[in-house]
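Renewal narrative, Specific Aim 1. Our central claim is that a sequence can be written position by position from structural information alone. The example that follows is taken directly from our test logs and has not been curated for this report. It begins with the structure tokens describing the chain, in the order in which they were read.
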């Protein structure tokens, strides 16, 4: 049996057009507060992380028309964008995806928000779900 590489759910990402409205909705409806907010220019997004137990809801909005999230919103509209799973070793988890014939977006782990190391797995090789591997 293979050792489990996914240790917990890090976040569920939701693509939104209006970040402030989405933050207000979660605050007013559920009492959720922003635990972390960051603009990630390399990905062309701004995020707001809402803490839920040991995980987050990640609200994402594009900061440029060419970002993957802008393209996603244009094609599919607002909604679930990806699931982030925590891993102890992002490089090892990414290599496991490759070793098992999976398609990857990132060939190597790279810096993510809040000081993490991340890599994305293509949804076409993961039953239609965009997966982010997150190493804290």
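The sequence written for that structure reads:
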């Amino acid at each position: 049996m293979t050792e489990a590489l996914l240790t917990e759910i890090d976040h569920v990402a939701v693509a939104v057009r209006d970040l402030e409205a989405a933050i207000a909705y979660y605050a007013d409806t559920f009492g959720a507060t922003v635990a972390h907010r960051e603009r990630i220019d390399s990905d062309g997004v701004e995020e707001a992380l809402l803490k839920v137990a040991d995980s987050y809801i990640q609200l994402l909005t594009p900061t440029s028309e060419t970002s993957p999230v802008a393209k996603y919103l244009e094609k599919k509209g607002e909604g679930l964008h990806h699931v982030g799973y925590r891993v102890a070793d992002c490089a090892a988890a990414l290599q496991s995806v490759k070793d098992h014939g999976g398609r990857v977006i990132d060939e190597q782990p790279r810096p993510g928000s809040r000081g993490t190391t991340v890599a994305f797995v293509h949804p076409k090789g993961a039953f239609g779900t965009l997966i982010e591997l997150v190493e804290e």
